[in-house]
Design brief:
Blueprint (H helix, E strand, L loop, with lengths): L6 E5 L4 H12 L3 E6 L2 H13 L5 E6 L5 H15 L4 E4 L14 H25 L7 E5 L12 H23 L5 E7 L6 H5 L4 H8 L8 H12 L9 E4 L7
Parallel strand pairs: 1-2, 1-4, 2-3, 4-5, 5-6, 6-7
The structure holds NADP nicotinamide-adenine-dinucleotide phosphate.
NADP nicotinamide-adenine-dinucleotide phosphate binds next to helix 1 and helix 6.
């Protein structure tokens, strides 16, 4: 896809991988809608894009992805504003420590609702907005935890395994409909973002300790570069899943 002049929607664009994907799309001349709850952070990303030297532009849209009606409204707002929808990056997500032994079911629900349910709702709404002639591209930011279950991260891994399943489910549906649209999961290992602060209740020292075990983890820009590679592949190339990790990461 030639991204110049296209319109993309990025969920979780207020920080980390989502913000990096939004900036990367804008540098290619794409118009980008930025969805998340923290409006000040969305505005900061939008200002950065406006100040950049690319042709791209950004529209911040406050949206709590746990509210299904709000997702549909946000995608409609984006479509009306840019006049088209070509790309959806389902990036928003979170990990929480929540075992099955005595685990807090509110934590299971929080992960499930954002990582899986909201991703499916946003996907359904975006598919209805893609041009029937040109199609579009859905990018699901999954995780290596969609491919293995790390000790202590079981429920998060369950949600990312579900993302793997729905990514393949959508590919099969698109084939059955002879659609030109494509779907891709990107499954990173450790990336330096606020993810580990959220995981550890805002404890920055603990988050830094996790990432500090490595000399150099992935950056959000590394993941965004992979997203661009996937989106810009020729029409006949459908990349289904990309597993990427810091070279020194074991599993
Ligand atoms: N960092 C890693 O090592 C890593 C590895 C593999 C996969 N991933 C995946 O990468 C994706 C992005 O995470 P990240 O690493 O960039 O972490 P992050 O910096 O914590 O970003 C998470 C984003 O999700 C948004 N979000 C969370 N709950 C939301 C809700 N209810 N409604 C709307 N937005 C919500 C947050 O925005 P607000 O708080 O402003 O709403 C934020 O923008 C996630 O799917 C994560 O599972 C991360």
């Amino acid at each position: 896809m030639d991204l110049a002049g296209k319109a993309a929607i990025v969920t979780g664009a207020s920080s980390g991988i989502g913000a990096a994907c939004a900036r990367a799309l804008a540098r290619r001349g794409c118009r980008v809608s930025l969805l998340a709850r923290r409006e000040d952070r969305l505005r900061a990303v939008a200002d950065e894009i406006a100040a950049g030297d690319g042709e791209g532009a950004a529209l911040p849209i406050r949206c709590d992805l746990r509210d299904e009606a709000a997702i549909a409204a946000a995608l409609e707002t984006s479509h009306a504003h840019w006049g088209r929808t070509d790309v959806l990056v389902n990036n928003a997500g979170l990990g929480r420590s929540a075992p099955l032994h005595g685990g807090d079911s509110a934590e299971w629900r929080a992960m499930w609702e954002v990582n899986v349910h909201a991703l499916c709702v946003a996907t359904r709404e975006a598919l209805a907005l893609f041009s029937p002639d040109d199609g579009g591209h859905i990018i699901n930011i999954s995780s290596l935890s969609g491919h293995r279950v790390p000790p202590g991260g079981g429920f998060y891994a369950a949600t990312k395994h579900a993302v793997k399943a729905v990514t393949e489910m959508l590919r099969l549906e698109l084939r059955a409909r002879e659609s030109r649209s494509r779907v891709t999961a990107i499954s990173p290992g450790f990336v330096e973002t606020e993810f580990f602060e959220v995981l550890h209740d805002g404890d920055r020292a603990r988050a830094a300790e996790v990432l500090g075990r490595f000399e150099k983890v992935l950056s959000a820009d590394d993941v965004a570069a992979t997203m661009l590679h996937v989106l810009e592949a020729p029409d006949h190339v459908s990349i289904s899943d990309v597993l990427m990790r810091p070279t020194e990461q074991q599993s």
